[in-house]
């Protein structure tokens, strides 16, 4: 940067840096390009965090071809399919658990064995939920593991799981009722992640952030939601979608994945441009 060059090319500049040094370098780049407008910086990186922190215009290259070019927000609007909705449910209180147990059993010390599961689920209101108590279910595996280890599960543990599962089903039903296309991405205990896909612009509940926040906020207490967030599709998901479809010419719509596709021989890069005018 000595000599204030008009154009500056940087290739993966933050690779191997610790967080403090990386942030300092970002501040320097932002100062010379965005604030002081001394230089135009062309930056290549695989770090979406770095890209969003520095770039006013972004291009995605796949297989040596430039697939798109625009601001971060433009790319999210153009290639991001809908919104992400993350929710954390309220933990069942001891009073709620005890009340549910005593409603169906004589004692809170009741033990439920494997052979009693169908009858117990029927007693609690839905015999089909027996199918959730398997090792592959995101929450039912906890009950299945307790039964496998101890030969039984306590009524309290079962009731706590049942209450949490009921809350999740209520949230899912609420989203499906208000939006045309909802996809469950992941569940972990009392946390769940959803994808709300784009809807027609004339839909009453079109995917404006304000609409979604208003709907959820009004139903937050009823749905026992402790905290939640609504966000656009991330830049990394857009990048991964392009990279995984390098041989497809059609426009890319985002299907979120937990890890990027990394097929052999794929040549992919991320070209980001910081323009001072």
UniProtKB/TrEMBL annotation:
GO cellular component: membrane
Annotated GO MF terms: ABC-type transporter activity; lipid transporter activity
Organism in which the protein naturally occurs: Phytophthora nicotianae (strain INRA-310) (Phytophthora parasitica)
Keyword check for tRNA processing: no
Coiled coil region boundaries: none
Domain (ABCA1-4-like C-terminal R2 regulatory) ranges: 166-232
Keywords in alphabetical order: Repeat, Transport
Protein name as annotated: ABCA1-4-like C-terminal R2 regulatory domain-containing protein
């Amino acid at each position: 940067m000595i000599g204030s060059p008009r154009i500056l090319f940087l290739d993966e500049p933050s690779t191997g840096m610790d967080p403090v040094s990386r942030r300092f370098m970002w501040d320097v780049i932002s100062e010379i390009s965005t604030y002081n407008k001394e230089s135009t910086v062309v930056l290549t990186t695989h770090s979406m965090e770095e890209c969003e922190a520095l770039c006013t215009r972004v291009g995605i290259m796949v297989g040596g071809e430039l697939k798109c070019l625009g601001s971060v927000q433009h790319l999210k609007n153009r290639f991001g399919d809908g919104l992400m909705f993350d929710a954390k449910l309220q933990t069942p209180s001891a009073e709620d658990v005890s009340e549910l147990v005593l409603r169906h059993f004589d004692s809170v010390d009741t033990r439920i064995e494997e052979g009693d599961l169908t009858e117990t689920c029927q007693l609690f209101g839905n015999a089909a939920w027996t199918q959730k108590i398997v090792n592959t279910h995101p929450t039912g595996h906890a009950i299945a593991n307790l039964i496998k280890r101890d030969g039984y599960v306590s009524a309290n543990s079962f009731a706590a799981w049942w209450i949490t599962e009921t809350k999740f089903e209520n949230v899912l039903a609420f989203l499906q009722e208000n939006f045309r296309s909802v996809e469950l991405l992941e569940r972990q205990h009392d946390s769940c992640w959803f994808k709300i896909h784009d809807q027609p612009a004339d839909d009453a509940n079109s995917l404006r952030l304000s609409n979604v926040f208003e709907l959820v906020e009004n139903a937050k207490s009823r749905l026992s939601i402790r905290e939640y967030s609504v966000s656009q599709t991330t830049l990394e998901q857009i990048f991964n979608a392009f990279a995984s479809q390098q041989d497809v010419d059609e426009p890319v719509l985002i299907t979120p994945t937990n890890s990027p596709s990394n097929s052999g021989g794929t040549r992919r890069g991320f070209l980001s441009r910081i323009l001072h005018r």
